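Subject: two folds for Thursday's group meeting

Dear M.,

Sorry for the delay on this. The cluster queue was jammed most of the week, so I only got both jobs back this morning. I'm pasting them in the order they finished. Each block is the input sequence followed by the predicted structure tokens. Could you check whether the formatting survives your parser before we put anything on slides? The first protein is the one we discussed after the seminar.
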Amino acid sequence: MPWKPDYLTDTEAADFVRAPGVDLADLATWCTAASRAIDKRCNRQFGQVDTLTARTYRRPAVYDVVSGLWLLEIDDVQDVTGMTVGGTALASSGATLLPDNAVLDGRPYERLGFADYPDGPVIVAAVFGWTEVPAQVVGATKLQVSRWSSRRDSPYGIAGSPENGSELRLLARLDPDVSTTLAGLARRRRVG
């Protein structure tokens, strides 16, 4: 799976929207746009790099009184095979992967904890990203693509009929159901 993939293919989208004659090229564009909108909403992406990749983190670590550790935000990591911190294997580096129980919860590690303040930039080599795209991300992508597909036939961003009392204005934001579907997946801020 690549970094920043589309979370839905044009054929999957066509099956979901059930609109005969919809142009697959349009659906492919909407799939990409919806995937990037979800990334922006969540302040993260749900793909994975193919190999160990070194990344440099220059932001200062923040001391956490509860854990007694200096915390450094890193990009999401679920596969820790071969991971190094500062050129040293993770197990020997003295760094702690956080949050605790991330693997059991189906979540990625988002931070490193250090007993002592890490001086200078910290270089982490890992297979960054998610091992698989969460189901709610795929579902949210389907909903957003469906919304855009419906809007295509609505006049000036209005769906429904005023005569039948079903008029609905389509806003320039993610569908509220998409935001609800993504609840709990957003990071506080972007890393790096």
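Second protein, same layout:
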Amino acid sequence: MAILVAAMIASPLAACAPEPPTAVFVGDGATLVAPTDAPSWVDSVSASQGWAEINAGCSDSGYTQRGTVCMATFREQLPALVVDEPDVVVVSGGLSDLDATPGEIRAAVRATYVEARETFPKATIYAVAGLASGPSDAVTVLDDAVAEAAASVGAVYVDVSEPLTDPTLVADDGSLTAAGHAAVAELTSNVISAK
């Protein structure tokens, strides 16, 4: 009898437990693809923050470029994600945009974050810099554009460029290694936790 009463009391409390925040990740292949036998940075960040993760990454997509499967830029993907009612939106990537002109990159990045804020007015938005293996003029243009656009819409900019200068973090094909995913996850989680 005591066990039955205890179970009846515990059930309503369990039913009242808050739902975890829903986080949508929009990005390129580094967002979508996990390394072999290791969690992706997206999985690790979601776990550390207690988020319910929705990964909308799409290989080869970017601010100016449409992905090979989703056939959409980051900006074009956003309206379809409204149904998920995210509390958090994370946008990461842009390396496929590096062949675009600086003006095209700046305009597309700006339009993406304006769209993100208008589409998800109550969400917390995180803007993760391009996950490049080293500095270049094009990467600097991209990262500066993301930082500026993020600030203009009240998003949080996450600069992960410094950790990726370590050659063990990026494979020969430009993809993140397991150590690279771990480094990006740690830095991103640290920035998020500090806000």
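Two things I noticed about the second structure. The helical segments are 2-15, 29-32, 41-49, 74-77, 102-119, 137-152, 178-194. The two ends are 48 Å apart (CA to CA).

Cheers,
T.
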